[in-house]
Amino acid sequence: MNPHWTPESWQKRQAQQQPKYDNPQELADAIRRLTNLPPLVTAWEVDRLRTQLAIAEEGNAFVLQGGDCSESFDDCNSTSILRKLKVLIQMSLVLICGSKKKIVRVGRIAGQYAKPRSADTEKRGDVELPSYRGDIINQSGFTPVERRNDPQLMLRAYEKSALTINYIRALSEGGFADLHHPENWDLEFVRNTPGSRRYQQLLESLSDSIRFMEAVSAGELTQLTRVDFFTSHEGLLLAFEQALTRMERNRGWYNLGTHMAWIGDRTRTLDGAHVEYFRGIRNPIGLKIGNSMEPDELVELIGILNPENEPGRLTLIHRFGAEKIRERLPRLAEAVLKAGQRALWSCDPMHGNTQTARNGIKTRSFDEIMSEIITAFRLHKELGTRLSGIHLELTGEDVTECTGGPGNLTESDLARDYRSQVDPRLNYEQAMEIAFLIAEQMK
Ligand code: PEP
Ligand code: CO
Asked: Ligand 1: which of 275, 278, 346, 351 to mutate, most ligand atoms within 8 Å of CB?
């Protein structure tokens, strides 16, 4: 345990990307209420994820982490949650069949409500208002009332996370998640495409294998009736994270608002508040690594975040872009190897490949996303490290936010059904195609 650490010790450091609240009393009241509410997850679940991540780090499992760039309160409904779960379960099946490995499923879900922004304000015409920072902080509508930072929204975010996690738990425990009934994961809008036919074929061969195994073992394979599904979000809003940090007797401090949290690329300053907060919790944590990370800095950060060099503790999520990865990853991976530091390497092929389309809409190209993934597999192999995870922004909906992929979406298609308030996500078809391509890489 860290003698000089407390859940509040981050407050003595510089905290980037925090909202300014205009009423300290209201903020203190919201934090006090949150601190008294029950946890959303348990330390046993958190430790189970950590054990599974340690297995992935060794190369015996693969991590599929994905979900919205930013969840919205309005999307806390059965259809939206169900579709996200369906696409992640379907993708994990494709990956299992390709890799013959266990897949660790981690949603960007049930708490992914705070966003870092490049500017503090947004200007439309002559009107300038505070930027939208996610539903836990303010609202996306462009009026002064909606853009006010409101501490009450932290309580709403806690409630929405609780509702989401409750539904996910119920679904993953049985019935819905039973591998004997993959038809439960069908999505009503899926067209008869080569991708969907490939998925159906995969299911048929899987069903054959299950029937075979059950025949020779003379009974139902009961492990197949449920799935493990974990939650994660960016631990950005430190007052909120602090309020959900609880002492588990004899085990230490856990963030019991989520199973896993990560530090964003904009808030990973060595002596900053986020690194201070994260070093003290027992959860498995992620660290986003963008193009400005230097080898020495990374080694120092790992030293602070995982001083005992524990397996499963730290996931390094790199996000360089399809081209830049060639130059950036080798220097960092070599430095980490040389320092003898252990970590799970994961690739986020989304955030280094964001572009603005001609019509001004933020988008990402499917081909660049795929290219970064393929390069990541190759480079890690050459470097003697291992790519053990993928981190995606995706949705189970039929949206038009990224270009390319099986539906060949072009820039002019983007306006048709663009719903993200923040970053563009892979739609269902694109996400499944990525799963097949990753499975191919892992064979
Ligand atoms: C994100 O994951 O949505 C994000 C903001 O990423 P990064 O910190 O890598 O920019
Ligand atoms: Co994003």
From this structure: 351
